[in-house]
UniProtKB/TrEMBL annotation:
Highest taxon in the source lineage: Bacteria
Originating species: Kordiimonas pumila
Keywords: Aminotransferase, Pyridoxal phosphate, Transferase
Family: Belongs to the class-III pyridoxal-phosphate-dependent aminotransferase family.
This protein's name: Aminotransferase class III-fold pyridoxal phosphate-dependent enzyme
Length: 441
């Protein structure tokens, strides 16, 4: 029995929606019924351009035929297989493909079901690695202000977004946070800001406070996604790598958003030329068609477990790790990225996309900052009467009414279209944004 009387739209009361103002949504819902290519279709039959790639997931667009058919075929062959003490061939095939795709020594894959699970898995792998090596006192993690690393207790502990943390107690002990590497001098940078690498040196201050011998890992998003698309200053990530290596601290790149083409490469690690010890992935791994995540580990970490532990080397895993349908979707997606030149399309059109997004600021005084890299972009808007999200939330809703789906985060509108987007599609996005911002202003 359900108590629906508390909801304005009674038939929607049973579903408690994530990261959504439920009362407001159920009073005026935005309901999607189908999707194909660059568009989603509402229950009223309106076609909406998906300017946020689902939630950074649908890199190939929606309903990609190779991905869809792979899922259908797998469902009729092997619908489920436990990953505990059993395996299926496609899981090993996918791991090999990813190991070949990722840079350097990131040769070993542990499969999860989401970005949140990938982050918590990476944190646990880091702790176990140090313990096996006889440095079990390395238990601290260092995250970053404004970081987003999913919603598990590990992820919100190392994350730095206040609303994700404030309701849920003290979280993991022994976690510290680096400052956010962005300031007003970097506003409206095209791609990577020229200055700001010095922010990485703040890590040395934190290490001096706690002592390096107590710190297991540092975790960062190479490009900040959920907090509003903030691009790392030139030299910043390389400096973090230098500092962590010097002190024997593992570096974790959270590439849940950036992996598989968002920056025109298979990973941000490849684009920036910085190789982490652990890398988390999800979202575009399967084109968002079936939930799946992964953690890539350097061979040195994997071999430490294999050589240092008898029996079950890592007491960790999930009921749906390497789920056959997810693996089938991932295999099809990975093949499509290569066969259809998806990463190349982003590299070819990145400059055009960036120029089009930056041009919006010249036409609208309400835009206070523009940021871009690859097929990621963000427009920060001034507030109406100094009320947070007062303008951005109106733009989010009006864009939807005008046929464009974008993402709102605080005072920022993020635009990150599917990686198959061409220049004519970019023109359509900017035309709809011009119309939308004018109507709100």
């Amino acid at each position: 029995m359900t108590d629906r009387g508390l909801n304005k739209n009674d038939k929607m009361g049973a579903y408690w929606m994530p990261f959504t103002p439920n009362k407001a949504f159920k009073a005026a819902p935005r309901m999607l019924e189908s999707a194909d290519g660059l568009y989603v279709t509402t229950t009223e039959g309106r076609k909406i351009f998906d300017g946020s790639s689902g939630l950074w997931c649908s890199a190939l667009g929606h309903n990609h035929p190779k991905v869809t058919e792979a899922i259908r075929a797998q469902a009729g062959k092997l619908d489920y297989s436990t990953a505990f003490q059993f395996g299926h061939p496609q899981a090993f095939e996918l791991a090999e493909i990813l190991a070949e795709t990722l840079p350097g020594g990131l040769n070993h894959l542990f499969f999860t079901n989401s970005g949140s699970e990938s982050v918590d898995t990476a944190l646990k792998i880091a702790l176990g690695y140090h313990r096996i090596r006889g440095e079990g006192q390395r238990t601290r993690f260092i995250g970053r202000f404004n970081g987003y690393h999913g919603v598990g207790f590990g992820g919100i502990s190392v994350g730095g977004m206040v609303n994700n943390r404030k309701y849920f107690g003290a979280q993991l002990p022994g976690v510290d946070h680096m400052p956010f590497p962005y300031d007003a001098s970097m506003h409206n940078s095209f791609g990577q800001p020229e200055s700001g690498a010095q922010y990485a040196d703040e890590l040395e201050t934190i290490i001096a406070l706690h002592d390096a011998s107590t710190i297991a890992a540092v975790i960062v998003e190479p490009v900040v996604g959920s907090a509003g698309v903030y691009v790392p200053p030139k030299g910043y990530l390389k400096r973090l790598r230098e500092i962590t290596k010097k002190h024997g601290i593992l570096l974790i790149f959270d590439e849940v958003i950036t992996a598989f083409g968002r920056l025109g490469y298979a990973s941000a690690s490849e684009r920036f030329g910085v190789e982490p010890d652990l890398m988390t992935m999800a979202k575009a791994l399967t084109n968002g068609a079936v939930p799946m995540g992964a953690v890539a580990a350097q061979s040195a970490i994997y071999n430490t477990y294999m050589d240092g532990v008898e029996g079950v080397e890592l007491f960790h895993g999930y009921t749906y790790s390497a789920h056959p349908l997810a693996v089938a979707a991932a295999l099809a997606a990975q093949r499509a990225y290569k066969e259809e030149g998806i990463y190349e399309n982003v590299r070819e059109n990145e400059q055009y996309f960036g120029e089009a997004i930056h041009a919006l600021k010249d036409a609208h005084s309400s835009i206070t900052d523009v940021r871009n890299i690859g097929y990621m972009s963000a427009l920060t808007h001034s507030r109406i009467n100094d009320v947070p999200m007062s303008r951005s939330s109106k733009i989010f809703q009006r864009a939807y009414e005008n046929g464009l789906k974008v993402r709102v985060s605080g005072d920022t509108i993020a635009i990150a279209p599917p990686l198959i987007t061409k220049r004519r599609d970019i023109d359509l996005i900017t035309d709809m944004m011009v119309k939308t911002i004018k109507e709100v202003d």
